[in-house]
Each structure stands twice: as structure tokens, then as C-alpha cells.
Amino acid sequence: MYISKSFIPILKNNPSEAKIKSHQLMLRVGMIKQSAAGIYSWLPLGFKVMKKIEQIVREEQNKIGAQEILMPTIQSSEIWKESGRYEDYGEEMLRIKDRQDREMLYGPTNEELVTDIFRSSIKSYKSLPQLLYHIQWKFRDEIRPRFGIMRCREFYMKDAYSFDITDEDALFSYNKFFLSYLKTFKRLDLTAIPMAADTGPIGGNLSHEFIILAETGESKIFTDKRIFDLDSEGTKLEKDSLKELRKKYEQFYSVTDEKFNKTEFEKKVSETNRLITKGIEVGHIFYFGDKYSKPMGCSVDLPGGKKDFVKMGSYGIGVSRLVGAIIEAKYDEKNEVMKWPISVAPYDIAIIPMINKNDNSALEKADKMNSEFVKNNIECIIDDTDENFSSKVKKMNLIGAPYQIIIGKKTEGDVFEFKEIGKETKNLSLAEIIKIIKEQKAIN
Ligand code: ATP
Ligand code: MG
Questions:
Q1: CA distances (Å), 37 to each of 33, 43, 344, in order?
Q2: Counting atoms of ligand 1 from 1, which one is nearest the CA of 157?
Q3: How do residues 340-356 score in pLDDT, each as one tens digit?
Q4: What is the residue with the minimal CA distance to atom 26 of ligand 1?
Q5: 46-75: per-residue pLDDT in tens?
Q6: Which ligand is the nearest neighbour of the Cα of 202?
Q7: Do residues 79 and 85 make contact, with C-beta atoms less than 8 angstroms apart?
Q8: By C-alpha distance, which of 283, 63, 27, 273 is closest to 157?
Q9: Domains with residue ranges and CATH for the chain
């Protein structure tokens, strides 16, 4: 892609309305454009990143056996009246009337709708477990939308739902998502810590929020530092192995402020291991048993001929919020340098050719290089403008492709100035460059 042909409306300076760095960068490089309070259009750069995040989320859901569906954004109020949440949900729910005067709403979450889908088709315990998910826009009329797409009104979410018959099986499902979340965030190069959390309007009694540390986060957290050394390495998709995984994490105190208890914290965590800080919630999982299945009459036949209400959990990931969360974690705002993890980078590599009025050879080299990249599934952005070198570098540093190539006066033959953002420049051949990038992409 040539910069001159791209739709990447870069601003010269930081927009003054943005208070946190993800919002600043997203407006600065034109990843999003606000259309109303808390409602945004996604422009090519932002959309590319979000779609890559979505795909990783999807792959990790599929790996645990969840099946993808797509539910509508607009729902009927009937099912919400059945569950009793139509009144309870309050002002965050956007309520709409259609031309027949029927009460509709823009879905803030989908427990009711998915329960209705399930109950109309699944009649026997033999079809369990069922893990269903979709990736769809949600609307919550947040009282104070802020920080760009971090807390907005319309946002993109992956929400999954599990259906089982015994508590034990339901917790097995819960733990599958626990694992898949750790793996998802790892592929996004984020350290997300599961923390015991309140269940809020979703309900239930078991819940974890997945939080990444960030000074600008809105969640206050209290943890034992040792939890940051853990990972899900070696965990199998089996009941016992997953139980062990949760135990491993739960041995360390780690809660959000709603669950905070000072005495417990000080008793369980030595002074040197205590960490009180802020974070961004990127995912949230809940187990709530028959909270929805019971009022909605969602039951299945049991082996002996009896029936029972299914036990459910729900599992959200803020796909659009993650775009901002990754920027919060990776953007060096002081030097104005962004480095996207290769797994979600809008472009894998940026080529900066030094172009003179009467010499097009650098751009020709860039074009040739690009066709090699294309063959190798490497996505590249080329600055074909005649701006000066330093402003080209500045621009590419904001766009954040993790690798850069400079084609300048010093470039001779088949050796190029190659740089991974944040590291030393090296002189490498195109074949060596392709090898490095392909290796990095393969890890993800
Ligand atoms: P929060 O406490 O941040 O309001 P929540 O507990 O209401 O989040 P859930 O209902 O668990 O959120 O939604 C699942 C995920 O969707 C959250 O973990 C978060 O990443 C994302 N999310 C929730 N509300 C918003 C919002 N207003 N803007 C962007 N993303 C959101
Ligand atoms: Mg909320």
C-alpha cells in the first residue's frame, strides 16, 4: 500500500480532546473517527487491527470447541421481560420502538437471546455441553463515555455462552474459557491477569475479570505480584488439568476493588509482594447457574426421564477495547513511537524510500521488494511521498508497523537498512528480512 493512496488521515499534532495515549494515537493516525458521543467509525488502519484481534479471539474460541453464531444487534423486549432484566438493566439499555409500537432494544449483552435460541432446539442432555459465541456490536448508553473506544457506547464484543447440566460440567466449561482467555491475550502480547470480580448486572457468584496493568485503567486492583510469573503452559483441555490451572492462579490474592478486603489482603500477601495499581478490563467471565434458564423455562431431558434447567455461564471479551488496551501497553508517547505486536499489526513492515525529484530508483526498489513480500504473505506500507526523511520516519513510527526498511543513498545492491522498532538498525538482504518476519509471524 502506498501512503499517498491510503486513507490514513494523520494529524500533525496530538488532538487536545484526547486524555489518554490510546485515544491520542488513534485520532492522530486516523484509526477512528467520532460520529456522536461514544460512537465511532473505524477507518482502515483501526479496522485492520480490530479485525486481526477478532480473528485471534475467534481461533482461540474454536480451539476449546465453541461454535460461532451471529445474533442480531436489535432484540425484542419480550425475552428480557421473561428473565426479569428489562426493568433491572436501567438506563444503560437503549430502548427503541418500531413502527408497530413494539418495544425493541439494541442489545447490551445476549444472555436472554442465546437462551431463547438454545431452548428452541436443544432438548436432551445428550447434546451437552454447548458452547456458543458470537462477535457483534453492543450498545450501552454509558453515562460518561470517555477515552475514545475504551469506554464508548457502541462497541464490538465477543460474547460466549455455555450450557451444561451439572455444576461440575459447567465449571469445566468455565475453566475452558479461563484457559482460552489466557491464550488469547498472550497472542496479543498482553499480560492479562484474572482477578476475582463482582458480577454486576449479569449476576451469578463466580466471576473473573481479565485485567492488563495500565495507569490509565479504570479498575483498581490489588494483587500478589507473583501472579505475573504464571502462565498456562502445559495445560491440557481436560477437567483436572484445567482445575489445576485455576488453582495455580487462585493461590495468589488478586481482586478488583469491589472484592477488596484489606485484612485478607494483608494477611495473605507479604508486604514485598503487594501491588496496588490500576488496570484495564479486557475480558470478563461469569458462572451463574440457572439465573436465566429458570425464569425462561430452559430445561433439557435427563437420563432418568426427569428434566432440569441448564446451568449457564457467559464470557465476554472487549474486542474493540483491546485495540486501545494494546496501545496503552505498547505506545511510547514521549518519543511518539508505536510498535504493534506482529500478530495484530496493521502492516508488518514499512518501507521508507528516499525519493528525489529526478531519481525514482528507490521507489522502484521498494516496489520490487513489495512484490516479494506479497508472495510471502507479508503486508507492507510504502511511503511514496516526497516529504523529507525525518517526517517520513515520524509518520511510520506512529503507524507502528513493527519493522522498517530504509532505502537511501547508502543502499547498494541487495543489502538494506532494516530495523525492528526499538532495536538497532542492521544491514540485511531481502531474503534475511523475509525470514525474520516470517519466523515472528509463525510464533503467533
Ligand atoms: P466495565 O466494568 O468496564 O463497564 P463490564 O463489566 O460492564 O465492563 P462486561 O459486561 O463484562 O463489561 O463486558 C465484557 C467486555 O466488554 C468487558 O470486559 C470490556 O472489555 C468490554 N466493554 C464493556 N463495556 C464497554 C464499553 N462501554 N466500551 C468498550 N468496551 C466495553
Ligand atoms: Mg459496564
A1: 11, 17, 27
A2: 16
A3: 999 999 999 999 999 88
A4: 151
A5: 999 999 999 999 999 999 999 999 999 999
A6: 1
A7: no
A8: 283
A9: 21-330 (3.30.930.10), 347-443 (3.40.50.800)
